[in-house]
Amino acid sequence: MLVVMKTDATEVQVQAVIREIESQGYRGIPMPGTQRTAVCIIGNKGPVEDSRLLSLDGVKETIPVTKPYKLVSRETHPQSTVIAIGDIKIGGEEPVIMAGPCAVESEEQALTIAHLVKQYGAQVFRGGAFKPRTSPYSFQGLGEEGLKILEKVRRETGLFIITEATDHTNIEVVEQYADIIQIGARSMQNYSLLRRAGQASKPILLKRGFAATIDELLMSAEYILSEGNTQIILCERGIRTFSDNTRNTLDISAVLSIKEVSHLPIVVDPSHASGRREYVIPLSKAAIAVGADGILVEVHHDPLHALSDGMQSLYPEQFARLMKEINNINR
Length: 331
Ligand code: PEP
Ligand code: MN
Prior knowledge:
Elements: E1 2-5, H1 11-23, E2 27-32, E3 37-42, H2 51-54, E4 59-63, E5 83-85, E6 88-90, E7 96-100, H3 107-120, E8 124-126, H4 144-157, E9 160-164, H5 171-177, E10 180-183, H6 191-198, E11 204-207, H7 214-226, E12 232-236, H8 253-261, E13 266-268, H9 270-274, H10 277-290, E14 294-298, H11 316-327
Parallel strand pairs: 7-8, 7-14, 8-9, 9-10, 10-11, 11-12, 12-13
Antiparallel strand pairs: 1-3, 1-4, 2-3, 5-6
Helix pairs in contact: 3-4, 3-11, 6-7, 10-11
The structure holds phosphoenolpyruvate (PEP) and manganese (II) ion (MN).
Manganese (II) ion is lined by residues 102, 272, 298, 308-309.
């Protein structure tokens, strides 16, 4: 349930509402809006008795929230969330382009790719230092050494950095180096990691699990938001279906469904969705055309020798073409 305050309600009145909610055994989270503040009640299993709340000063009305997720729902927060990182705005007018290799392999590799994607117009550099690999024998990433390389990339290019935290043992160090912390598809339901991400001081990019419904993705985002971190970017990266012509099936309508029910920005990862570099440009265009707030795309200067995901990594010239082509798309 949402307790909507009057436009002239004071902070003291908002606090009184939160205390009343707590006295009923729930939590009240203030959600400041442009016109008025609303207080979202979380922790209730059924309907909340609202007569005492309605009698408090400054309260306009109560509205039931019908979805199982509360804080990420558009019912609770009608305006779209915009996440500002330096001069870029994720969820704003322009799509944000995050590009780079699957994994940080060496300083030379990361800097070479970073200079190229920067030159062609990317705003954020992607690259995993801690890699969640299906096989324990595959390259697992450079760990903190990789994070130090990413720091150098930021210093030399001015690109912001997105990199993955794979569990609660590395999120702390990732938080120190990253501008955006990625939580991968395999970790979407790692609840201790989600809770820790909710306490992080950096924005979180949360990828949809291989077999997760939109509601499950949003419930995972709710874990993060309920711990206090409001800066969440969702990411559609393809789901597993009976179709085996591509690595995964890009659920392009997820962008529309998520925009309908949630205020959080949503980006698309066409690389993991398709697994094939020749599909990445058209799928990126589809994502932007349908209203995605950005794309997260793998680019490598030497994909044939990439230590991971070379098959789906664009050559730099292809990335240059992608940037040109998406510039011409009307959203
Ligand atoms: C990645 O971004 O390199 C990655 C591992 O993605 P996902 O979690 O979507 O598989
Ligand atoms: Mn990858």
